[in-house]
Amino acid sequence: METTNRRLAQLTLLSQLGQGLNAASDLDGLCTSISRILLEHSDACGVIIRPRQYGNPPPQSYYCTIESVDPALKIFFLQQESQLSGKTLHKGRSQLHFPLSNAPDRQLPASIFSLPLKVHDRIFGTLSLLGGSPQAGLPFTPDQQELFLSCGFQIAQTMEQLVTMARLRQVSASDFQRLQDLSLLYRITQLLHSTLATNELFHLILSLLVSPDGGGFHRAMLFMVNRRGGTLQGILGMTQESASWLLPDGLPPVNAPAFPIPADVQKAQRNAPFSREVMQQRLLIEDSDSCLARVAREQKAVLVSQHPGDGHSDDHLCRQMQMGDHACVPLISRGKTLCVLAVDNATSPNPIDGDRLRFLEMFAGQAGIALDNAQLLQRIETAHNNLREAQDQLLQKEKLATVGEMSASIAHELKNPLVSVGGFARRLTRSLEPESPSHQYASVILQESERLEAMLDDILAFSKQRLLCIRGYQLDAVLDRALFLEGELLQRAGIYLKLEKAEGLPQLQGDAGQLEQVFINLISNARQAMPEGGELQINIRHCLLRGEPAIRVEISDTGGGIPAQQMRNIFNPFFTTKEAGTGLGLPISHRIIEHHQGEIAVINTDHGACFSVTLPVQLRRLSADPLGYRQPGPATPADERAQK
Q1: Fewer CB atoms near the end CB (10 Å): N or C, the chain?
Q2: What phi and psi, each to the nearest 5 degrees, are found at residue 302?
Q3: C-beta separation of 168 from 146 below 8 A
Q4: How far apart are CA 363 and CA 314, in angstroms?
């Protein structure tokens, strides 16, 4: 009779256990159900299940069901069982612990039986049962152990099925998410390549990132790399609100026509408070510890998880922008970082995990290609415009050259009869009475003919290719000669001369005679700019020109300066503000300095104009000789004066 009852109890346990296993839909429900069934329909007074961590972990690491005992005893049971289940996992077979305690208290279970939940050499956890015969001091019987092993095998089979199904669901969900991401990226790529305007692309990139139908991030920021300054400059910031101004209905359908980006929407997005705050940010790439700078340097995405406003971040930008969980990715093209994207979910409960970071990296790859294409097109358009301007300038120069040749020919033909007119006018003035009207008429003819002769001489000098006689000379000696020739006129005009020379001025190479003409012209212009007197200051000092040693001469006057609208035209031929000027003095001087591989410039100071002439110490020899250099010959009078 006792055997029949025991068999009936075993069958009842197996039946209830089978029903519980069939009804279980997840690991948590399975462990809860079988621990209750085993406690109700077996001889165990306590059940402890420790499932191994597969896939998503259960809400707790073990499931413990023990009949009403002292809490201190429960802790003792768990400690004993933990050690025994560790041996079970290590050896892969069941373990029996007996006696449970040497204490004389017979309320304790007699033993702990721990068995592995094992199927096909895979262990899914351990099942431990507390029980035995405390009065007799006996552990679980062999029949009871066999029953528990049979139950454990069925439990392990069910665990295997649940783990497999959980993995399949996880893989399916992951594949579905990837399929959605790929479909979304395809639509986004179409939109990114719908425009080749860089500014429009900036607005489109950020709007797609924060749109609920796009990236779904809370905020997005774009920082551009300034290679010359070594900085990251904030370009644009976007929130979901400002993105809705561009994408009010979400993403347009696939194969939609070209997506317009109105100028008023761009302006509104730029002027949004968050965008203005982003545009004020500027970070050093090399010396900054910001994650943005690190991404620009290392060209790797960075994911930062933190609580907004917790004050624990060392990133000044994160604190200032109150960024919570955020990610930064580089926009790379042809091995160079073009921009850095930063997105965050500051007010969203959804964290930015690894899957979202992978999506962001794929998005950044497409955005980098689109941005590089837009910048390449912009460079092509700029080069095309520059080429067109150069062509227009070349055509204009060809026209001017033709006009110059014709002017030189006309000037040459006019000079001979003009000399005759001037000669006869001079004779008439000598033969007529000074007080007579005819003498006055002849004097006017003589003055105007002399003015026309001077103008024709300037035109011929400007149009004629003059050869340079390259010899060594001292620049201060050339300047002294020019001051000597202009000295009397400066004194008459009441102009005070202040001359400062640097020590150790080297010998230069060039045509001293032509340079003397340049300085006479500049000093004369300064004198004419101060008809009421003033101060003429000349400084000679050392400097560098294109990285090579050079000498700079600065000629400053107190004549009030040159009007801004005239500054850009003073070196143009025939531009003059003087009544008797030809407008060729400064252009001739400019050409002479260029032939000497130097530079001439002018600026306005507080008191007047300052002309600076910079000349290299050594001339660069060219394979061709476009400047008309000739080998040094016999010294000219100007050369001899410059050597003294």
Answers
A1: N
A2: -130, 130
A3: no
A4: 28
pLDDT per residue as tens digits for the range 341-356: 999 886 666 678 777 8
Count of CB atoms situated within 10 Å of the CB of 194: 18
* Residue 454 phi, psi dihedral angles, 5° rounding: -65, -40
**Residues whose CB is less than 8 angstroms from the CB of residue 66 and which lie 6 or more positions away in sequence, other chains included:** 45, 46, 47, 48, 74, 77, 130
Q: What is the DSSP letter of 503?
A: S
The 3-state DSSP class for residue 531 equals coil
Where residue 419 falls among pLDDT bands split at 50, 70, 90?
confident
CA 29 vs CA 36, 76, 181, 359: distances in Å: 11, 26, 33, 34
pLDDT above 90 (res 577): no
Looking at the predicted structure, is the pLDDT value of residue 461 above 70? no
Contact by Cβ (8 Å): 187, 254: yes
The residues that bridge with 552 in the sheet, in sequence order, are 541, 614
CA dihedral 433, 435, 441, 443 (to 10 degrees): 80
- Asked if pLDDT for residue 498 goes beyond 80, the answer is yes
Q: What Å distances lie between residue 399 and 351, 395, 396, 458, 512, CA to CA?
A: 69, 6, 5, 20, 32
Q: Hunting for tokens 């017979």 — which residue is that?
A: 106
> CA–CA separation, 107 vs 501, rounded Å?
113
Name the amino acid, one letter, at 276. R
Q: Which two tokens stand for residue 214?
A: 């796009």
Dihedral class, residue 216 (left if φ above 0, else alpha if ψ from -120 to 50, else beta): left
DSSP state of 520: H
Question: Cis peptide before 626, with omega less than 30 degrees from 0?
Answer: no
The first and second tokens of residue 178, run together, are 């990837």
- Token digits for 615? 């000349």
Q: How far apart are CA 332 and CA 297, in angstroms?
A: 11
Cα-based angle 55, 57, 59 (whole degrees, multiple of 5): 155
